[in-house]
Amino acid sequence: MNKAKSLFQILYQAKPILRKWILLMVDLLIVLFSISIATFVLFLKRVFYSEVYNFDFSSFLWIYYTAIVISPIIYILTKQYKALSRYSGVTTYYQILGRNVLLYSLIYLYGFRLNVSYQPSFILMMVFTCLSQIFLRLTIRDFVNYSTSLPNKKLINVIIYGAGENGAQLAKNLMKLNTYKIICFLDDDKKLWGRSILGLVIKAPIELDNLKNKVDQILLAVPNLNRTKRKKLIEYLQNYKIPLLSIPSIKEVISGKLDSYNLMPISINDLLSREVVNADKKLLGMGVKGKVILITGAGGSIGSELCKQIYYLNPKKMILFDMNENNLYLINKSLINLKIKFPIKTVLGNACDYQTLKKILLDNKVDVVFHAAAYKHVPLVEINAVEGIRNNIVSTYKVCSASEDTYVKNVVFISSDKAVRPTNIMGASKRLSELIVQGFSDKKTKNINSDPVVFSMVRFGNVLDSSGSVVPLFRSQIKSGGPITLTNEKILRYFMTISEASQLVLQSLSLAKGGDLFLLDMGEPVLIKKLAEQMIILSGKSIKNSDNPNGDIEIKLVGLRPGEKLYEELLINGESLPTSHPLIFRAKEKSMDNKRLFSRIDKLLNFLNDYKTEESLKILKELVPEWKKLNDLN
User: Does residue 173 fall inside a structural domain?
Assistant: First the structure.
C-alpha cells in the first residue's frame, strides 16, 4: 500500500516557481511576525516603566510597510530562493544572516531619516527573523528527507567500520541517499567507544555479535590500513557471513580511478597473503625512458598492464604487437584516451613470423622487446599440443633471432612458475623457451651496431584477475549461482597482482646482465579452496555444504585437470641470489649446450611445420627431461 504524501513532499514536488513564491510569502510573514514580537517587547518595556500612556502602535506601521516593500526585493535580488532547502547547510544559514542584516539596516536608516523617536529593537527583529528562517529550512530539509526515505522498498541496514574522517564523511553521504539505515560505527580505538558521530554511537567490534542479525552490510571505511592488518580485519568480519563493501584507497582516488566515497566489493587483492611488493622507482623507469619499446602479446593480461605502466615512464615510442584483433583494439583504446605524450603504434601480427618481427624492429629501431605473447591456458594447450608448442616456443625463438639481427639492446622473456618441473605441455614449452633465451645469451649475441644484446627472463606465479587466473572463473560461477568447480581441495598456488607482475618485468630490465632469471618473493602460497570460500562470503553469499545444506554456493570437487599439479614451485634447483631490490632475486638455473640445443630446436621446428605431434612431444621431452608426464596422444 502506497504511503500518502506529506505536505512537505507535495511542496517539494511542486513546480519551482510555485515553491519560490510560497517560500517568499512565508519569509515575509516571518519578517512581519518578528516586527510584531519586537514591538510587543517594546510595549512590555513601557508597561514596566509605566510609560504606556504615550505608546501608540500606529506609529510603528511604517516598519511594516517598509518591510513589505524591501524584504522581497532583497531576498529575490540576493537569490535566497536559488538554493535547494533539501541540501541547505552552514553556508546557506550565513547567507540568510547577511541578507537580514542588510534588510534591517535599511529599515533602521529609513526610520532614522523619518526622524522616528522610538523604534523597536532591530537586533531582536533580525535575530528572530534569522532563527525562524533557518529553522524553516531545517524543517523542510528534514521532513522532505524523512518523507523520501519511506519508500515501499526496505532500507539497507549497515554498520560502518572505521570512525575516522573517512567513516564520518561516508556516513554523511549515505544519509543523503535515503536508501541506507546506519545502525552504528565500529572501531578498534577504545577511546572512541561510547562517543558518537552525527548522532550515531561508536561501538567496540565485539558488539557485532549482538548486531549481526540486524545488519545487511558492513562498510569498511579504513582505506589506509596496511595490507596485513586489512586482511586480518576482513577475515575476522567474514566469520559473521555479512556482505562487505569498502571505500577506495587514497591511491585510487588520487589516480582518478574512483570517487572518494564510492562503495565497492572487497578487492581480491585484499586476500593476498602478504604485503604488495613496492617497486623501486629508480629501477622502474631506468630501462625504458627515452627508448623505443615493443611489447608482444600487448593485448593480454600482462602485456596490457605492461603497456599502461610503460606509458607513465616516458619511452620514446611504444609499439603494441598482438595477433588478437579485439585485445589489441582494447589496449590501444585505453591508451589513446590518455594524454598523448609519444607515438603509440599498433601492429596486428604473429610473433612466430620472423620477417614481420624483423621489419618492425628495423623500421622503428626498437631498443627493448618485452616478449609476453604466449598460450597459457593449461587444458587448451594439452589438447592442442602442436599449436601450443608452436606459439610458445617458436615465437620465443623468432623474437630472439630477429632481435640479434636488428638494433635491439634488451629482450625480456616472461615465463611462468609452471616451467619448474612441469607436468603439462604449457609448462614444458615455457621451460624450453627459457633455455632458448639462455642459449641466445650464451652466444654473446650482438646486434647490427655490434652492441651485446642482453637477454633476460622473469618467472612469477599466478597473477590475480588475469585471464588465466581462477579468480575470474570463480567470480563468474558465483554470479551464475554456482557451483564453484575446484580441482582438488589441497591445491596451492602463489599469487601476485597484475601491477606487481608488470613492475617486476620492468625492474628486471634495469637489473639484467645477460641470461638472468628473475623471481619475486611470493610469500606463502594460497590454498585455493580457502580463496573460493572467501570469494563466496565477500560476494554476500553463503557456502552450501553438509553443515549448511541451505547455503547459496556449493564448492564442487572435479579432479585435477590434465597436466595440473597440486603445488607450484619457483625454482628448479633452489638457488637464488639477492639483487639491489630486497624482494627480487636472481636465480641460477642450469642451461644446455648451445650446439645441441639449437640443432634439436631446428628439428622440432620441422616436426611442428609437418604437424607431427608425437615426434614434437618427444623432442620437447628430450630437451626438458624434468617434464614428468607425456599425455596420451590418442
Answer: yes
Whole-angstrom Cα distance, residue 129 to residue 103? Answer: 11
Asked if 209 and 315 sit in the same domain, the reply is: no
Task: Categorise residue 162: left if φ over 0, alpha if ψ from -120 to 50, beta otherwise.
Answer: left
Q: Which residues lie closer than 8 Å to 125 by C-beta, 6 or more apart?
A: 31, 34, 35, 37, 38, 104
Residues 130 and 231 in one domain: no
Would residue 559 count as lying in a domain? no
Q: Three-state DSSP class for 201?
A: strand
- Chain-centre distance for alpha carbon 584: 26
Length of the chain: 634
DSSP for 246-304, written as a single string: EPPPHHHHHTTSS-TT--EEPPGGGG-SSPPPPP-HHHHHHTTTT-EEEEETTTSHHHH
Locate 511 and state its grid cell.
637489473
The pairing of strands 196-197 and 156-161 is: unpaired
The highest-confidence range among 117-126, 162-171, 249-258, 581-590, by mean pLDDT, is: 162-171
Output the CA–CA distances (angstroms, integers) from residue 509 to 112, 123, 238, 312, 512, in the order listed: 84, 75, 41, 16, 5
> What's the rounded Cα separation, in Å, for the pair 62 and 107?
9
pLDDT in tens, 274-333: 566 677 777 888 889 999 999 999 998 889 999 999 998 989 999 999 999 999 999 999
Q: What whole-number distance in Å separates Cα of residue 342 and Cα of residue 344?
A: 6
Give the H or E element holding residue 554. strand 553-557
Angstrom distance (rounded) from CA 297 to CA 363: 19
Return d(Cα 74, Cα 586) in angstroms, integer: 77
Count structural domains, the chain. Answer: 3
**Residue 456 is assigned to a structural domain of this protein:** yes
> For residue 130, what are the domain limits?
7-148
Say if residue 125 is in the same domain as residue 218.
Answer: no
Q: At 596, which amino acid appears?
A: R
Q: Report in angstroms the alpha-carbon separations of 288 from 124, 497, 505.
A: 72, 21, 11
Round to whole Å and give the CA distance between 459 and 438.
14
Asked if 125 and 170 sit in the same domain, the reply is: no
- Beta strands at 492-493 and 526-527: parallel, antiparallel or unpaired: antiparallel
- The last residue of a domain, from among 123, 148, 173: 148
Does 457 share its domain with 594?
Answer: yes
| Burial classification of residue 309, based on how many CB atoms lie within 10 Å of its CB (0-12 exposed, 13-18 middle, 19 or more buried) | buried
Residue spans of alpha helices (H) in 212-353 = 227-238, 250-254, 281-286, 301-311, 325-336
pTM for this entry? 0.63
Counting DSSP H helices and E strands in the chain, the numbers are 22, 23
Q: Where are the alpha helices (DSSP H) in 178-249?
A: 208-211, 227-238
Q: Say how many Å lie between the first and final Cα of the chain, rounded.
A: 67
φ, ψ of residue 350 to 5 degrees: the values are -105, 130
Q: What is the dihedral of CA 68, 70, 74, 76, to 10 degrees?
A: 50
For residue range 157-201, list pLDDT tens digits in order. Answer: 899 999 988 888 888 888 877 678 899 999 999 999 999 998 899
**Residue whose entry in the numeric block shows the C-alpha cell 618481427:** 357
Any domain includes 420? yes
The CATH number of the domain where 261 resides is what? 3.40.50.720
Burial class (CB in 10 A: 0-12, 13-18, 19+), 199: exposed
The domain boundary residue, chosen from 148, 173, 194: 148
Tell me which residue of 160, 155, 238 sits closest to 541, measured CA to CA.
238
Give the up-direction half-sphere exposure of residue 107: CA atoms within 13 A in the CB hemisphere.
Answer: 30
